[in-house]
Design a protein that fits this description.
4-stranded antiparallel β-sheet; binds adenosine-5'-triphosphate; Alpha-Beta Plaits; 14 strands; elongated
């Protein structure tokens, strides 16, 4: 298990990490969320010794990390670090060799991952000749080529088309099912909600929410009410207790309301206001939880 404890890191006056603590277990996938500048990349870089925290610790199975442990991890950095002139297969074989594979193991693994990620025809293409999304697939392959026990991916889904997104999600799922610990940062909250059991939200350098998506949703202090009705139901909605916000898009009213609010009777009153097309009362989405946590 990866355990990050009480990390602090300042760059001059900027407190990038402010007591950040978080853990990732084997066989689990953690979505690491937070607004721009919250400290996600700084946390990930700390795992790989690319920045030195001012205080705090990062351990793997209880051991402080050295270069040996880190070689057994896979990292997809924010600044994609591939050699533009190198051919994709050569690049991956080279990465495999750096991480301790034999020449044959590295070449076989490079071929496997290029094929698995939909680049079977591109083994001999230079990295710079690949599209942004395809370079990103090679970058994921580079993180996977040595079969790491921990995968740390900085915004792996950014800029991918829906097919590549699906392939990347499947691969991360397979890695998790195979017992790897997987953590990735993302701003695509719907996607994270779909594929991750666990999430952590960082804000201003410390974790403000951590847990399973399901438990966090159930325990949330808010509920999401969606009402689609002819006419303006805003005045009617405002009669409910504990309404936190109402957004109206045409006939659709999206309401955030206290979980403790009693909405019985509301359905009847909404029907009096006009023809009711749709009514739902659900736990909040991850996007709602995120807004609550960072605002
Ligand atoms: P994003 O979602 O925009 O990628 P992030 O959560 O990854 O953001 P970080 O890149 O970790 O955020 O940055 C956290 C804070 O630390 C920001 O205020 C950033 O400007 C600052 N910071 C990060 N690296 C450095 C650096 N090398 N020098 C100075 N400030 C830095």
């Amino acid at each position: 298990m990866l355990v990050i404890s009480d990390l602090h890191k300042s760059f001059g006056d900027i407190h990038a990490l402010n007591g950040c603590s978080l853990s990732v277990q084997r066989g689990r996938m953690l979505g690491f969320l937070g607004p721009n500048g919250a400290g996600k990349t700084t946390t990930m870089r700390s795992i790989f010794g690319l920045i030195s925290p001012d205080s705090g610790s990062v351990t793997w199975d209880g051991q402080e990390l050295g270069s040996g442990e880190r070689l057994g991890f896979g990292y997809m950095p924010e600044e994609r670090g591939l050699y533009p002139k190198m051919r994709a297969h050569d690049q991956l074989s080279y990465m495999g060799r750096i991480h301790g594979l034999t020449k044959k193991e590295a070449a076989d693994s490079a071929s496997y991952w290029l094929d698995r990620l939909g680049l079977a025809e591109r083994h001999d293409d230079a990295i710079e000749a690949l599209s942004h999304g395809n370079q990103q697939r090679v970058q994921l392959a580079a993180a996977l080529v040595h079969d790491p026990a921990l995968l740390v991916l900085d915004e792996p889904f950014a800029g991918l088309d829906p097919i590549a997104t699906e392939t990347m999600s499947e691969v991360l799922d397979e890695q998790t099912a195979a017992g790897k610990a997987v953590v990735f940062s993302s701003h695509q909250l719907d996607l994270v909600e779909d594929i991750c059991e666990d999430v952590a939200i960082i804000n201003e350098g410390s974790i403000v929410v951590e847990g399973t998506v399901k438990a966090l949703k159930d325990a949330a202090p808010i509920r999401h009410l969606e009402v689609d009705v002819d006419g303006d139901a805003r005045a009617l909605l405002e009669t409910l207790e504990g309404v936190r916000s109402i957004e109206v898009e045409g006939s659709r009213h999206n309401v955030i309301i206290d979980a403790s609010s009693d909405v019985r009777g509301f359905l009847g009153r909404a029907q009096e206001a006009g023809r009711l097309r749709h009514f739902s009362y659900t736990t909040p989405s991850l996007t709602d939880l995120f807004r609550e946590a960072v605002q």
